[in-house]
Design goal:
It is found in: Cytoplasm. Pfam families: GTP-eEF1A_C, GTP_EFTU. It comes from Tulasnella calospora MUT 4182. The chain has 479 residues and is α+β, with helices and mostly antiparallel strands. It has ten helices and 28 strands. The strands form seven sheets. Strands 2-3-1-4-5-6 form a six-stranded mixed sheet, with helices on both faces. A six-stranded antiparallel barrel has the order 7-8-14-11-10-15. Strands 17-23-20-19-27-28 form a six-stranded antiparallel barrel. Bound molecules: guanosine-5'-triphosphate. Guanosine-5'-triphosphate (GTP) binds next to helix 2. Guanosine-5'-triphosphate binds next to helix 2.
Amino acid sequence: MAEDVALPPPKMALSREKVIEEARKAAEWKTGDGKKGLSLVIIGHVDAGKSTLMGRLTYELGQMEEKKRRENERESNKAGKGSFMWAWEMDALGEERDRGVTIDINQSTLNLPNTSLTILDAPGHRDFVPNMISGASQADAALLVVDATTGEFEAGFAGGGQSREHVLLVRSLGVGTIVVAVNKLDMVNYSQARYEEICSTLKPFLVQSGFSPSKTTFVPVAGMAGVNLVEKDTEGSDGLRKWWKGQTLIDALDSLQPPGRPIEAPLRFPISNVFKGGGTSTMASGIGVSGRLASGVVQVGEKLRILPGDETAIVRTIEFEDNSVPWAAAGSNVTLYLSNVDPVNLNIGSVLCPPSDVVPLASSFIAQVIVFDIQVPITSGTSVELFHHSRDTPASVSKLLATLDRNTGNVIKANPRVLTKNTSAKIQLTLRGGTLSAPSSKATSIPIETFASNKEMGRILLRRGGETIAAGIVLELCP
Ligand SMILES: Nc1nc2c(ncn2[C@@H]2O[C@H](COP(=O)(O)OP(=O)(O)OP(=O)(O)O)[C@@H](O)[C@H]2O)c(=O)[nH]1
Protein backbone atom coordinates (compact mmCIF):
# COMPACT_ATOMS: atom_id res chain seq x y z
CA MET A 1 0.00 0.00 0.00
CA ALA A 2 1.04 3.58 -0.48
CA GLU A 3 3.05 5.22 2.25
CA ASP A 4 2.41 8.61 3.67
CA VAL A 5 3.22 11.42 1.28
CA ALA A 6 5.06 13.35 3.98
CA LEU A 7 7.87 10.80 3.88
CA PRO A 8 10.69 11.59 1.48
CA PRO A 9 10.40 9.64 -1.78
CA PRO A 10 12.24 6.32 -1.76
CA LYS A 11 15.63 5.99 -3.45
CA MET A 12 16.37 3.60 -6.27
CA ALA A 13 18.03 0.51 -4.80
CA LEU A 14 19.44 -1.04 -7.95
CA SER A 15 21.01 0.03 -11.22
CA ARG A 16 18.89 -0.45 -14.34
CA GLU A 17 21.31 -3.15 -15.51
CA LYS A 18 20.84 -5.06 -12.27
CA VAL A 19 17.03 -4.92 -12.58
CA ILE A 20 17.26 -6.18 -16.16
CA GLU A 21 19.48 -9.02 -14.99
CA GLU A 22 17.03 -9.98 -12.24
CA ALA A 23 14.08 -9.75 -14.63
CA ARG A 24 15.89 -12.00 -17.08
CA LYS A 25 16.52 -14.54 -14.34
CA ALA A 26 12.89 -14.39 -13.26
CA ALA A 27 11.82 -14.94 -16.88
CA GLU A 28 13.81 -18.18 -16.95
CA TRP A 29 11.27 -19.62 -14.58
CA LYS A 30 12.12 -23.23 -15.31
CA THR A 31 15.45 -23.01 -13.54
CA GLY A 32 14.15 -21.28 -10.43
CA ASP A 33 11.37 -22.05 -7.99
CA GLY A 34 9.16 -19.31 -9.35
CA LYS A 35 6.19 -19.78 -11.63
CA LYS A 36 5.88 -18.29 -15.06
CA GLY A 37 3.59 -15.30 -15.22
CA LEU A 38 1.07 -15.04 -18.02
CA SER A 39 -2.03 -12.97 -18.68
CA LEU A 40 -5.09 -14.38 -20.35
CA VAL A 41 -8.01 -12.49 -21.82
CA ILE A 42 -11.35 -14.32 -21.85
CA ILE A 43 -13.29 -13.71 -25.03
CA GLY A 44 -16.45 -14.99 -26.69
CA HIS A 45 -20.02 -14.25 -27.54
CA VAL A 46 -22.41 -12.97 -24.89
CA ASP A 47 -23.69 -15.86 -22.72
CA ALA A 48 -21.11 -18.34 -24.01
CA GLY A 49 -20.60 -19.16 -20.32
CA LYS A 50 -17.33 -17.31 -19.71
CA SER A 51 -18.03 -16.15 -16.16
CA THR A 52 -19.56 -19.50 -15.17
CA LEU A 53 -16.54 -21.34 -16.53
CA MET A 54 -14.05 -19.12 -14.71
CA GLY A 55 -16.05 -19.25 -11.47
CA ARG A 56 -16.22 -23.03 -11.55
CA LEU A 57 -12.54 -23.25 -12.43
CA THR A 58 -11.65 -21.11 -9.41
CA TYR A 59 -13.69 -23.43 -7.22
CA GLU A 60 -12.24 -26.63 -8.69
CA LEU A 61 -8.73 -25.29 -8.13
CA GLY A 62 -9.58 -24.85 -4.46
CA GLN A 63 -9.30 -21.09 -4.77
CA MET A 64 -12.93 -20.44 -3.86
CA GLU A 65 -13.92 -21.63 -0.42
CA GLU A 66 -16.95 -23.85 0.11
CA LYS A 67 -18.45 -21.15 2.34
CA LYS A 68 -18.08 -18.64 -0.48
CA ARG A 69 -19.61 -21.06 -2.95
CA ARG A 70 -22.66 -21.50 -0.74
CA GLU A 71 -22.90 -17.76 -0.33
CA ASN A 72 -22.81 -17.28 -4.12
CA GLU A 73 -25.47 -19.94 -4.49
CA ARG A 74 -27.69 -18.22 -1.93
CA GLU A 75 -27.17 -14.76 -3.40
CA SER A 76 -27.78 -15.83 -6.99
CA ASN A 77 -30.89 -17.79 -5.98
CA LYS A 78 -32.18 -14.84 -4.02
CA ALA A 79 -31.77 -12.67 -7.10
CA GLY A 80 -33.70 -15.29 -9.07
CA LYS A 81 -30.62 -16.18 -11.08
CA GLY A 82 -29.67 -19.58 -9.74
CA SER A 83 -28.10 -20.58 -13.04
CA PHE A 84 -25.63 -17.74 -12.61
CA MET A 85 -24.22 -19.00 -9.31
CA TRP A 86 -20.73 -19.66 -10.65
CA ALA A 87 -20.65 -16.41 -12.59
CA TRP A 88 -21.44 -14.62 -9.32
CA GLU A 89 -17.88 -15.11 -8.16
CA MET A 90 -16.41 -13.25 -11.12
CA ASP A 91 -18.82 -10.37 -10.67
CA ALA A 92 -18.10 -10.19 -6.95
CA LEU A 93 -14.39 -10.03 -7.67
CA GLY A 94 -15.04 -7.15 -10.01
CA GLU A 95 -16.84 -5.18 -7.33
CA GLU A 96 -14.23 -5.91 -4.76
CA ARG A 97 -11.56 -4.60 -7.02
CA ASP A 98 -13.48 -1.52 -7.96
CA ARG A 99 -11.45 1.17 -6.26
CA GLY A 100 -13.65 4.10 -7.04
CA VAL A 101 -13.30 4.31 -10.81
CA THR A 102 -15.12 2.63 -13.62
CA ILE A 103 -13.76 -0.86 -13.93
CA ASP A 104 -13.95 -1.99 -17.49
CA ILE A 105 -12.59 -5.47 -17.10
CA ASN A 106 -12.50 -7.98 -14.23
CA GLN A 107 -9.04 -9.00 -13.16
CA SER A 108 -8.12 -11.92 -10.94
CA THR A 109 -5.32 -14.44 -10.54
CA LEU A 110 -5.44 -18.21 -10.87
CA ASN A 111 -2.66 -20.19 -9.27
CA LEU A 112 -1.81 -23.17 -11.48
CA PRO A 113 0.97 -25.67 -10.74
CA ASN A 114 3.44 -23.92 -13.07
CA THR A 115 1.76 -20.63 -13.87
CA SER A 116 0.49 -17.57 -12.13
CA LEU A 117 -2.30 -16.69 -14.53
CA THR A 118 -3.76 -13.18 -14.57
CA ILE A 119 -7.31 -13.45 -15.87
CA LEU A 120 -8.82 -10.54 -17.77
CA ASP A 121 -12.54 -11.23 -18.11
CA ALA A 122 -14.04 -9.20 -20.93
CA PRO A 123 -17.78 -8.66 -21.15
CA GLY A 124 -19.17 -10.26 -24.29
CA HIS A 125 -21.79 -7.66 -25.05
CA ARG A 126 -21.38 -5.68 -28.21
CA ASP A 127 -21.26 -2.36 -26.38
CA PHE A 128 -18.31 -3.58 -24.37
CA VAL A 129 -15.91 -4.17 -27.24
CA PRO A 130 -13.83 -1.08 -26.34
CA ASN A 131 -13.33 -2.57 -22.85
CA MET A 132 -12.29 -5.81 -24.41
CA ILE A 133 -9.71 -3.95 -26.44
CA SER A 134 -8.26 -2.59 -23.22
CA GLY A 135 -8.15 -6.12 -21.77
CA ALA A 136 -6.69 -7.69 -24.88
CA SER A 137 -3.96 -5.10 -25.14
CA GLN A 138 -2.74 -6.35 -21.75
CA ALA A 139 -2.87 -10.07 -22.56
CA ASP A 140 -0.36 -12.71 -23.66
CA ALA A 141 -2.92 -15.32 -24.67
CA ALA A 142 -6.66 -15.59 -25.22
CA LEU A 143 -9.23 -18.11 -24.05
CA LEU A 144 -12.09 -18.19 -26.53
CA VAL A 145 -15.22 -19.70 -25.01
CA VAL A 146 -17.79 -20.94 -27.52
CA ASP A 147 -21.23 -22.32 -26.75
CA ALA A 148 -21.64 -25.76 -28.35
CA THR A 149 -25.45 -25.68 -28.05
CA THR A 150 -27.10 -26.27 -31.41
CA GLY A 151 -27.65 -22.91 -33.07
CA GLU A 152 -25.77 -20.97 -30.39
CA PHE A 153 -22.29 -21.60 -31.73
CA GLU A 154 -23.52 -20.53 -35.15
CA ALA A 155 -25.09 -17.34 -33.74
CA GLY A 156 -21.89 -16.39 -31.92
CA PHE A 157 -19.75 -17.02 -34.93
CA ALA A 158 -21.84 -15.67 -37.83
CA GLY A 159 -21.52 -12.06 -39.04
CA GLY A 160 -22.41 -9.84 -36.08
CA GLY A 161 -21.46 -12.52 -33.52
CA GLN A 162 -18.80 -11.43 -31.07
CA SER A 163 -16.65 -14.56 -31.37
CA ARG A 164 -15.44 -13.57 -34.80
CA GLU A 165 -14.79 -9.93 -33.95
CA HIS A 166 -13.05 -10.80 -30.67
CA VAL A 167 -10.69 -13.22 -32.42
CA LEU A 168 -9.71 -10.63 -35.01
CA LEU A 169 -9.30 -8.00 -32.34
CA VAL A 170 -7.05 -9.98 -30.03
CA ARG A 171 -4.85 -11.11 -32.89
CA SER A 172 -4.53 -7.54 -34.18
CA LEU A 173 -3.52 -6.46 -30.69
CA GLY A 174 -0.60 -8.86 -30.74
CA VAL A 175 -2.01 -11.88 -28.90
CA GLY A 176 -0.51 -14.86 -30.72
CA THR A 177 -1.71 -17.83 -28.64
CA ILE A 178 -5.28 -19.03 -28.27
CA VAL A 179 -7.05 -21.78 -26.34
CA VAL A 180 -10.60 -22.58 -27.46
CA ALA A 181 -12.93 -24.02 -24.82
CA VAL A 182 -15.82 -25.70 -26.62
CA ASN A 183 -18.28 -25.21 -23.78
CA LYS A 184 -21.74 -26.37 -22.65
CA LEU A 185 -21.16 -29.82 -24.16
CA ASP A 186 -23.76 -31.08 -21.67
CA MET A 187 -26.33 -29.37 -23.90
CA VAL A 188 -25.44 -31.66 -26.82
CA ASN A 189 -25.01 -34.86 -24.84
CA TYR A 190 -21.23 -34.68 -25.05
CA SER A 191 -21.44 -35.36 -28.77
CA GLN A 192 -18.03 -35.95 -30.36
CA ALA A 193 -19.45 -35.12 -33.79
CA ARG A 194 -20.64 -31.71 -32.57
CA TYR A 195 -17.26 -30.98 -30.97
CA GLU A 196 -15.46 -31.89 -34.19
CA GLU A 197 -17.86 -29.87 -36.31
CA ILE A 198 -17.11 -26.78 -34.23
CA CYS A 199 -13.34 -27.37 -34.35
CA SER A 200 -13.36 -27.82 -38.10
CA THR A 201 -15.30 -24.56 -38.56
CA LEU A 202 -13.00 -22.63 -36.25
CA LYS A 203 -9.62 -23.99 -37.38
CA PRO A 204 -9.46 -22.39 -40.85
CA PHE A 205 -10.86 -19.15 -39.48
CA LEU A 206 -8.17 -18.99 -36.77
CA VAL A 207 -5.43 -19.63 -39.33
CA GLN A 208 -6.83 -16.90 -41.59
CA SER A 209 -6.91 -14.54 -38.63
CA GLY A 210 -3.18 -15.11 -38.12
CA PHE A 211 -3.02 -17.75 -35.36
CA SER A 212 -0.45 -20.41 -36.11
CA PRO A 213 -1.88 -23.95 -35.64
CA SER A 214 0.98 -24.72 -33.24
CA LYS A 215 -0.28 -21.94 -30.97
CA THR A 216 -3.92 -23.00 -31.10
CA THR A 217 -5.45 -25.56 -28.69
CA PHE A 218 -9.01 -26.92 -28.50
CA VAL A 219 -10.50 -28.40 -25.33
CA PRO A 220 -14.04 -29.79 -24.87
CA VAL A 221 -15.65 -28.72 -21.56
CA ALA A 222 -18.90 -28.25 -19.69
CA GLY A 223 -18.20 -25.29 -17.43
CA MET A 224 -21.24 -25.40 -15.19
CA ALA A 225 -20.89 -29.12 -14.41
CA GLY A 226 -17.12 -28.75 -14.04
CA VAL A 227 -16.41 -31.39 -16.69
CA ASN A 228 -12.83 -31.54 -18.03
CA LEU A 229 -11.76 -28.39 -16.23
CA VAL A 230 -9.21 -29.60 -13.67
CA GLU A 231 -9.67 -33.35 -13.17
CA LYS A 232 -10.26 -35.81 -15.98
CA ASP A 233 -12.64 -38.04 -14.06
CA THR A 234 -15.37 -36.14 -12.31
CA GLU A 235 -19.06 -36.63 -11.73
CA GLY A 236 -20.81 -36.38 -15.09
CA SER A 237 -17.64 -36.75 -17.16
CA ASP A 238 -18.40 -40.25 -18.51
CA GLY A 239 -20.01 -38.98 -21.73
CA LEU A 240 -16.86 -37.07 -22.60
CA ARG A 241 -14.39 -39.68 -21.33
CA LYS A 242 -15.73 -42.18 -23.88
CA TRP A 243 -13.99 -40.33 -26.68
CA TRP A 244 -11.81 -37.56 -25.25
CA LYS A 245 -8.32 -38.70 -24.20
CA GLY A 246 -6.74 -35.27 -24.46
CA GLN A 247 -5.94 -32.67 -21.83
CA THR A 248 -8.10 -30.76 -19.37
CA LEU A 249 -8.56 -27.02 -19.68
CA ILE A 250 -6.15 -26.42 -16.80
CA ASP A 251 -3.46 -28.57 -18.40
CA ALA A 252 -3.85 -26.57 -21.60
CA LEU A 253 -3.62 -23.24 -19.75
CA ASP A 254 -0.73 -24.38 -17.56
CA SER A 255 1.34 -25.38 -20.57
CA LEU A 256 1.06 -21.99 -22.31
CA GLN A 257 4.45 -20.39 -22.86
CA PRO A 258 4.93 -16.69 -22.18
CA PRO A 259 6.01 -14.76 -25.27
CA GLY A 260 9.47 -13.17 -25.30
CA ARG A 261 9.36 -9.88 -23.42
CA PRO A 262 11.06 -6.65 -24.48
CA ILE A 263 12.76 -6.23 -21.09
CA GLU A 264 15.75 -4.31 -22.41
CA ALA A 265 13.76 -1.74 -24.40
CA PRO A 266 13.01 1.60 -22.73
CA LEU A 267 10.14 1.58 -20.22
CA ARG A 268 6.68 2.10 -21.69
CA PHE A 269 3.80 1.96 -19.22
CA PRO A 270 0.46 2.86 -20.81
CA ILE A 271 -2.00 3.66 -18.02
CA SER A 272 -5.22 1.66 -18.16
CA ASN A 273 -6.67 2.83 -14.87
CA VAL A 274 -6.13 5.68 -12.40
CA PHE A 275 -7.43 5.55 -8.86
CA LYS A 276 -6.99 6.94 -5.45
CA GLY A 277 -5.95 3.97 -3.40
CA GLY A 278 -5.48 3.09 0.22
CA GLY A 279 -3.43 6.09 1.35
CA THR A 280 -4.49 7.55 4.66
CA SER A 281 -3.48 11.17 5.09
CA THR A 282 -4.10 13.05 1.88
CA MET A 283 -5.52 12.06 -1.44
CA ALA A 284 -2.12 12.39 -3.05
CA SER A 285 -0.66 9.71 -0.78
CA GLY A 286 -2.34 6.97 -2.72
CA ILE A 287 -2.43 7.89 -6.37
CA GLY A 288 -2.26 4.58 -8.15
CA VAL A 289 -2.02 3.84 -11.83
CA SER A 290 -2.46 0.36 -13.16
CA GLY A 291 -1.60 -1.21 -16.46
CA ARG A 292 0.84 -3.49 -18.11
CA LEU A 293 4.47 -2.72 -18.76
CA ALA A 294 4.57 -2.79 -22.56
CA SER A 295 8.37 -2.80 -22.46
CA GLY A 296 11.32 -2.20 -20.15
CA VAL A 297 11.64 -2.31 -16.37
CA VAL A 298 10.60 -0.03 -13.53
CA GLN A 299 11.71 0.13 -9.90
CA VAL A 300 10.71 1.82 -6.68
CA GLY A 301 12.27 5.27 -6.40
CA GLU A 302 12.47 5.78 -10.15
CA LYS A 303 11.49 9.15 -11.59
CA LEU A 304 9.17 8.84 -14.58
CA ARG A 305 7.92 11.26 -17.18
CA ILE A 306 4.18 11.33 -17.93
CA LEU A 307 3.23 11.84 -21.56
CA PRO A 308 1.53 13.83 -22.91
CA GLY A 309 2.57 16.77 -20.70
CA ASP A 310 5.67 18.01 -18.91
CA GLU A 311 5.07 16.32 -15.56
CA THR A 312 7.16 13.75 -13.76
CA ALA A 313 6.36 11.46 -10.83
CA ILE A 314 8.28 9.22 -8.46
CA VAL A 315 7.40 5.55 -8.01
CA ARG A 316 6.68 5.08 -4.33
CA THR A 317 5.55 1.44 -4.36
CA ILE A 318 4.86 -1.22 -6.94
CA GLU A 319 2.06 -3.67 -6.35
CA PHE A 320 2.00 -6.98 -8.21
CA GLU A 321 -0.73 -9.52 -7.40
CA ASP A 322 -1.45 -7.81 -4.08
CA ASN A 323 2.22 -7.89 -3.02
CA SER A 324 4.60 -5.00 -2.83
CA VAL A 325 7.61 -5.64 -5.07
CA PRO A 326 10.87 -3.69 -5.62
CA TRP A 327 10.72 -3.78 -9.42
CA ALA A 328 8.61 -5.01 -12.34
CA ALA A 329 9.40 -5.91 -15.94
CA ALA A 330 7.74 -5.95 -19.37
CA GLY A 331 4.65 -8.15 -19.52
CA SER A 332 3.60 -7.68 -15.88
CA ASN A 333 0.27 -6.16 -14.90
CA VAL A 334 1.03 -3.91 -11.95
CA THR A 335 -0.18 -0.94 -9.97
CA LEU A 336 2.31 1.86 -9.42
CA TYR A 337 1.71 4.20 -6.51
CA LEU A 338 3.16 7.56 -7.42
CA SER A 339 4.18 10.60 -5.46
CA ASN A 340 5.35 14.13 -6.27
CA VAL A 341 2.64 14.43 -8.88
CA ASP A 342 -0.65 16.22 -9.28
CA PRO A 343 -3.30 13.56 -10.10
CA VAL A 344 -4.86 15.79 -12.76
CA ASN A 345 -1.87 14.92 -14.92
CA LEU A 346 -2.53 11.20 -14.76
CA ASN A 347 -5.05 10.00 -17.29
CA ILE A 348 -6.10 6.72 -18.81
CA GLY A 349 -4.04 6.36 -21.99
CA SER A 350 -1.10 8.45 -20.76
CA VAL A 351 2.26 6.69 -20.98
CA LEU A 352 4.95 6.64 -18.26
CA CYS A 353 8.53 6.44 -19.49
CA PRO A 354 12.08 7.36 -18.44
CA PRO A 355 12.71 11.15 -18.68
CA SER A 356 15.83 10.37 -20.72
CA ASP A 357 14.01 8.23 -23.27
CA VAL A 358 10.57 9.66 -23.91
CA VAL A 359 7.84 8.38 -26.20
CA PRO A 360 7.32 10.59 -29.21
CA LEU A 361 4.02 12.45 -29.55
CA ALA A 362 2.20 12.51 -32.85
CA SER A 363 -1.01 13.95 -34.20
CA SER A 364 -0.72 12.29 -37.59
CA PHE A 365 0.89 9.07 -38.78
CA ILE A 366 1.01 6.53 -41.59
CA ALA A 367 -0.36 3.07 -40.82
CA GLN A 368 -0.70 -0.24 -42.57
CA VAL A 369 -4.12 -1.69 -41.82
CA ILE A 370 -6.32 -4.66 -42.60
CA VAL A 371 -9.93 -3.70 -43.22
CA PHE A 372 -12.51 -5.96 -41.53
CA ASP A 373 -15.83 -7.18 -42.90
CA ILE A 374 -17.40 -3.72 -43.36
CA GLN A 375 -20.54 -2.71 -45.22
CA VAL A 376 -19.73 0.96 -45.87
CA PRO A 377 -16.33 1.49 -47.56
CA ILE A 378 -13.67 3.76 -46.03
CA THR A 379 -12.95 6.92 -47.97
CA SER A 380 -10.58 9.80 -47.45
CA GLY A 381 -12.11 11.93 -44.66
CA THR A 382 -13.88 9.04 -42.93
CA SER A 383 -14.24 9.77 -39.18
CA VAL A 384 -13.07 6.99 -36.91
CA GLU A 385 -12.29 6.23 -33.29
CA LEU A 386 -8.64 5.38 -32.90
CA PHE A 387 -7.79 2.83 -30.19
CA HIS A 388 -4.25 2.70 -28.90
CA HIS A 389 -3.85 0.74 -25.66
CA SER A 390 -6.54 2.08 -23.33
CA ARG A 391 -6.88 5.38 -25.14
CA ASP A 392 -9.58 6.15 -27.69
CA THR A 393 -9.31 9.34 -29.68
CA PRO A 394 -11.42 10.84 -32.46
CA ALA A 395 -9.47 10.75 -35.72
CA SER A 396 -9.97 10.83 -39.44
CA VAL A 397 -8.56 8.88 -42.33
CA SER A 398 -6.81 11.82 -43.96
CA LYS A 399 -5.29 10.00 -46.96
CA LEU A 400 -5.68 6.67 -48.70
CA LEU A 401 -2.13 6.06 -49.90
CA ALA A 402 -2.27 2.57 -51.40
CA THR A 403 -3.97 -0.79 -51.35
CA LEU A 404 -1.55 -3.62 -50.63
CA ASP A 405 -1.30 -7.31 -51.33
CA ARG A 406 -2.22 -8.96 -48.01
CA ASN A 407 0.53 -11.55 -48.29
CA THR A 408 3.45 -9.74 -49.87
CA GLY A 409 2.70 -6.18 -48.81
CA ASN A 410 3.34 -5.00 -52.40
CA VAL A 411 1.37 -2.01 -53.65
CA ILE A 412 -1.64 -3.04 -55.75
CA LYS A 413 -3.01 0.44 -56.37
CA ALA A 414 -1.67 3.86 -55.38
CA ASN A 415 -4.10 6.54 -54.13
CA PRO A 416 -7.27 4.39 -54.20
CA ARG A 417 -10.59 6.17 -53.91
CA VAL A 418 -12.13 3.75 -51.41
CA LEU A 419 -11.17 0.82 -49.20
CA THR A 420 -13.61 -2.06 -49.20
CA LYS A 421 -13.88 -5.04 -46.87
CA ASN A 422 -10.97 -7.43 -46.35
CA THR A 423 -8.40 -5.25 -48.08
CA SER A 424 -4.98 -4.31 -46.78
CA ALA A 425 -3.95 -0.68 -47.17
CA LYS A 426 -1.55 2.08 -46.30
CA ILE A 427 -3.36 5.12 -44.93
CA GLN A 428 -2.65 8.37 -43.15
CA LEU A 429 -4.55 9.02 -39.93
CA THR A 430 -4.92 12.42 -38.32
CA LEU A 431 -6.16 12.89 -34.79
CA ARG A 432 -8.81 15.37 -33.86
CA GLY A 433 -9.07 17.01 -30.45
CA GLY A 434 -11.89 16.78 -27.93
CA THR A 435 -13.67 13.60 -26.93
CA LEU A 436 -15.47 10.96 -28.94
CA SER A 437 -18.85 12.50 -28.16
CA ALA A 438 -17.62 16.06 -28.70
CA PRO A 439 -14.69 16.07 -31.13
CA SER A 440 -13.12 19.46 -31.76
CA SER A 441 -11.30 20.69 -34.83
CA LYS A 442 -8.14 21.33 -32.81
CA ALA A 443 -5.57 18.61 -33.39
CA THR A 444 -4.32 16.61 -30.45
CA SER A 445 -1.16 14.56 -29.96
CA ILE A 446 -0.79 11.17 -28.33
CA PRO A 447 2.24 9.12 -27.25
CA ILE A 448 2.68 6.53 -29.97
CA GLU A 449 5.59 4.77 -31.69
CA THR A 450 6.23 2.96 -34.93
CA PHE A 451 5.83 -0.80 -34.88
CA ALA A 452 9.46 -1.07 -35.98
CA SER A 453 10.73 0.76 -32.91
CA ASN A 454 8.38 -0.77 -30.33
CA LYS A 455 5.84 -3.44 -31.32
CA GLU A 456 3.72 -2.97 -28.23
CA MET A 457 3.42 0.77 -28.81
CA GLY A 458 2.85 0.56 -32.55
CA ARG A 459 -0.49 -1.25 -32.85
CA ILE A 460 -3.81 0.46 -33.51
CA LEU A 461 -7.47 -0.34 -34.05
CA LEU A 462 -10.07 1.72 -35.83
CA ARG A 463 -13.77 1.69 -34.98
CA ARG A 464 -16.73 3.50 -36.51
CA GLY A 465 -20.31 3.60 -35.23
CA GLY A 466 -19.71 0.89 -32.64
CA GLU A 467 -18.04 -1.50 -35.06
CA THR A 468 -14.36 -2.37 -35.47
CA ILE A 469 -13.49 -1.57 -39.07
CA ALA A 470 -9.73 -2.03 -39.26
CA ALA A 471 -6.60 -2.94 -37.32
CA GLY A 472 -2.97 -2.35 -38.06
CA ILE A 473 0.48 -1.08 -37.24
CA VAL A 474 2.12 2.33 -37.26
CA LEU A 475 4.71 2.71 -40.03
CA GLU A 476 5.77 6.30 -39.72
CA LEU A 477 5.01 9.35 -37.55
CA CYS A 478 4.25 12.48 -39.57
CA PRO A 479 5.97 15.70 -38.50
N1 LIG B 1 -26.06 -26.02 -19.84
C1 LIG B 1 -25.06 -25.19 -19.51
N2 LIG B 1 -25.33 -23.90 -19.28
C2 LIG B 1 -24.31 -23.07 -18.96
C3 LIG B 1 -22.97 -23.56 -18.89
N3 LIG B 1 -22.18 -22.52 -18.58
C4 LIG B 1 -22.97 -21.44 -18.46
N4 LIG B 1 -24.26 -21.76 -18.67
C5 LIG B 1 -25.42 -20.84 -18.62
O1 LIG B 1 -25.29 -19.87 -19.66
C6 LIG B 1 -25.73 -18.59 -19.21
C7 LIG B 1 -24.64 -17.54 -19.43
O2 LIG B 1 -23.54 -17.83 -18.58
P1 LIG B 1 -22.47 -16.73 -18.19
O3 LIG B 1 -21.37 -17.45 -17.50
O4 LIG B 1 -23.08 -15.57 -17.51
O5 LIG B 1 -21.99 -16.28 -19.63
P2 LIG B 1 -20.96 -15.13 -20.06
O6 LIG B 1 -20.33 -15.61 -21.29
O7 LIG B 1 -20.08 -14.82 -18.90
O8 LIG B 1 -21.90 -13.96 -20.35
P3 LIG B 1 -21.50 -12.38 -20.55
O9 LIG B 1 -20.60 -11.99 -19.40
O10 LIG B 1 -22.81 -11.70 -20.53
O11 LIG B 1 -20.82 -12.32 -21.87
C8 LIG B 1 -26.15 -18.74 -17.76
O12 LIG B 1 -27.55 -18.96 -17.70
C9 LIG B 1 -25.41 -20.01 -17.35
O13 LIG B 1 -26.05 -20.67 -16.30
C10 LIG B 1 -22.74 -24.97 -19.14
O14 LIG B 1 -21.61 -25.50 -19.10
N5 LIG B 1 -23.82 -25.71 -19.46
